[in-house]
Amino acid sequence: MSGTDRRERLPELNLFRAFAILGVVHVHASSYAAGVQASESPYYYFFNWMNIFFKFGTPCFIFLSSFVLFYNYAGRPVNRGLIFGFYRKRLLYIVMPYLVASVCYYFVNQGFNGDLSLPVGTHLAKLAAGVATGTAYTHLYFVFINVQFYLLFPLVLLLLKRFPGLAPWAVPLGLAIEWGFALWNKYDLQLEDKASYAPTYMSYYMLGLCAAAYFDRLKPWLARGLRSQTARQRGATAVLWGCWLAAAFVHVQLYHNGRAYGIWVDSLWYELLWNVHSLLSALVLLQAAFRLGRRAKPAAAFLSRMGELSFAIYLLHPVFLLAYRRFRYSIPPESLTYLVWVWAGVPVCLFLAWLTAAGVFRWVPGAPLLLGSRPGPARAAPARPAEPAGPKAAGSGRF
Fold first, then answer.
1. pLDDT tens across 126-155, in order?
2. Residue ranges of the chain with per-residue pLDDT less than 50
3. Number of helices (H), then strands (E), in the chain
4. How far apart are CA 199 and CA 197, in angstroms?
5. CA 133 to CA 95: how far, in whole Å?
């Protein structure tokens, strides 16, 4: 891997973040309906599709976290100053917001479940266990697994600098680690919170590393419209998008057969389809971000701002979804109204979280310690890239 201290800025990555946070919110908004709440609904296929098709959100954030770190740090010498600065930023803008969110969500959850009267010692023990495993609330595992990756990142960067020939083997190695862990867990460990451990996502980390290492070769394919691509590039685009849609359809159908008809298959098939669907999604969304950033300026500016705030939105949206679900009252799950109500949870919770994050960053002192690094001033996405963009959702802040 090679590079310079100042890499080309990639404003398109904020569009990628926006796509990923939309995926996350769709999955969370549909979780109850796709589970058991609407199993008898004539619209159940839509609920299941919404819940499974968008499962690329968290893996794509993980891919982007790895991509941005290796893209921005590859040309820097690995010394004490770099390591100190790297961990300082993550401690302040990732670990601190994670701890604050864990405490807040723990007590919100206890309040909704009527368990606030438990002894203080019990609360402390349960909270400590939740923080230590990323399970204080359902969405916080993403931050927890990224912290695990941050612990390894300087070592991996040093290895790649010393042995650059390892880069082409990154994805096969990541897949081997991920599937070795999956098989070990299925036949021996049987961890209930497997999703809270970094090996579960090793292929996404390694795909991000590989994309950063070969980005100079990848960028022409990403940036060109279909008409201006070479025949080989158009073939690669067609294969990528075709395989992505096929994997997504099979993934959705496999879950629908199980949830709707009780036809379940071996758990490794679900693991495989999710893995393939998500890996292809990372490349599809990356290409879509570059295309949109050059063609649809108003939409790109809107989504770019969403992407800049996506880490804060990620932290905040579940509390609004929790409150939103309290207003369902007597809407029957079989009705069309229920379908509209479920989907409406996406924009409602997304924009409430967005507005709250914007307000906190504007008015609350020390806001980055609560919601991650502060976004820059609102602006339209530039037509041409300029300076490195920090990972505002899937990493720390500015480098």
1. 999 999 999 999 899 999 999 999 999 999
2. 1-4, 379-399
3. 16, 0
4. 6
5. 13
Count the Cβ atoms, other than its own, within 10 Å of residue 14: 26
Q: Please, is 257 exposed, middle or buried when counting C-beta atoms within 10 Å of its C-beta (0-12, 13-18, 19+)? A: middle
Which structure tokens are listed for 9?
């800025």
What's the token pair of residue 286? 């990356």
Say if CB 245 and CB 281 are below 8 A apart.
Answer: no
Can you tell me the distance from the alpha carbon of 223 to that of 219, in angstroms, rounded to the nearest whole number?
Answer: 6
Which pLDDT does position 389 carry in this prediction? 34
Token pair for residue 324? 């939103």
Query: How far apart are alpha carbons 194 and 191 in whole angstroms?
Result: 5
| pTM for the whole structure | 0.90
Structure tokens that stand for 274 in this block: 């999710």
- Is 312 buried (19+), middle (13-18) or exposed (0-12) by CB count in 10 A? buried
- Distance of CA 37 to CAs 30, 43, 254, 342, Å? 10, 12, 19, 11
The radius of gyration of the chain from alpha carbons, rounded to an integer in Å, stands at 21
Q: Is 8 helix (H, G, I), strand (E, B) or coil?
A: coil
Task: Classify 43 as helix, strand or coil.
Answer: coil
